[in-house]
Amino acid sequence: MAEVRTHKITLVPGDGIGPEVSAVMVAAVEAAGKKFGAAFEWHSFEAGADAHAKNGVLIPEELYKSIETNKVAIKGPTATPIGGGFSSINVAMRKKFDLYANVRPVKSLPGLETKYPGIDLVIFRENTEDLYAGLEVMVNPDIAQSLKIITRKGSTRIAEAAFEYAKNNGRKKVHSIHKANIMKMSDGLFIKCTKEVAEKNTEIAYFEHIVDNACMQLVMNPYQYDVILTENLYGDILSDLCSGLIGGLGLVPGANIGKDCAIFEAVHGSAPDIAGQDKANPTALLQSAVMMLHYLGENEAGTALQSAIEKVYAEGKTLTGDVGGNAGTKAFGEAVLAAL
Ligand code: NAD
């Protein structure tokens, strides 16, 4: 009998809709793996707002240790209070494990009618610097200061990751998105670095767009973009904009990738407005799991899971409310399992 390959995965179900979409994801990954001789050992941890309220601990030390050992994690969304309270655990984990590349593929699903059919672009968002460094002070009660940190190292390595990806995946263009007309030093350094990397990779066409123009261009003609390379904050905003092009936040997956480990998670947040109601679309986390399967070298299982998701969309009978259907989270998950 062929040997089963077992992968140890750290799992954070997260807050809001997180546990609901995570349950669907775990079942689908197990089923896809089983078909091709892979098994999964899930090391699950409570972390985030609910864990903080329940146990007074935001990120348990064992979670850090588990990611250090397993090197691969997948997480549901975690909530972060607005305008005060604790800092984002996502930002903390990206910094802790130096997960510098946030890779977010935005691809239309078959059968889903949207204003822009046939979208296929990838966002490479720098994931450790920029205003997300969280270096803020109240200078006095009426002046708040937030430091924007951009480094040569951070800008160069995300540009190298974007160009490497473009070359290995048949992509033709990289657009570096910035606001260097205003932030001449910080964004100026970012585009200086991305241009230097472009000059070493001349087989890929290189363009620069100012971020406000890029927003307009994405709505007018998103097809001109192939790989979007950008800083942390612009990347976050552009990701949600691009999600809207293909049918919403329920669909777009993501990976936070560093030198030694990776954490996979959807673009969307904890969606408190629909949490606990069997309404969440698990597609974004399922497609994040597809990225994880490929990262683990389980390419057959990854391809099979992606095909099963696409089959459910092509049939169009069991879709969640956010994309015009009337199925629940669990029913959608069962349809994916049946398609597998
Ligand atoms: P959100 O992404 O949670 O929700 C925005 C809108 O999209 C809501 O209407 C929601 O119902 C919808 N939506 C999101 N995911 C969906 C899904 N899978 N299926 C169907 N509809 C979905 O953004 P928000 O409301 O601005 O943020 C809520 C919380 O999530 C905040 O605390 C924020 O800090 C957190 N957040 C976490 C992450 C993360 O963990 N990676 C990312 C973004 C936001």
From TrEMBL:
<comment type="similarity">
    <text>Belongs to the isocitrate and isopropylmalate dehydrogenases family.</text>
</comment>
<dbReference type="InterPro" id="IPR019818">
    <property type="entry name" value="IsoCit/isopropylmalate_DH_CS"/>
</dbReference>
<dbReference type="InterPro" id="IPR024084">
    <property type="entry name" value="IsoPropMal-DH-like_dom"/>
</dbReference>
<dbReference type="Pfam" id="PF00180">
    <property type="entry name" value="Iso_dh"/>
</dbReference>
<protein>
    <submittedName>
        <fullName>Isocitrate/isopropylmalate dehydrogenase family protein</fullName>
    </submittedName>
</protein>
<keyword id="KW-0560">Oxidoreductase</keyword>
<feature type="domain" description="Isopropylmalate dehydrogenase-like">
    <location>
        <begin position="8"/>
        <end position="336"/>
    </location>
</feature>
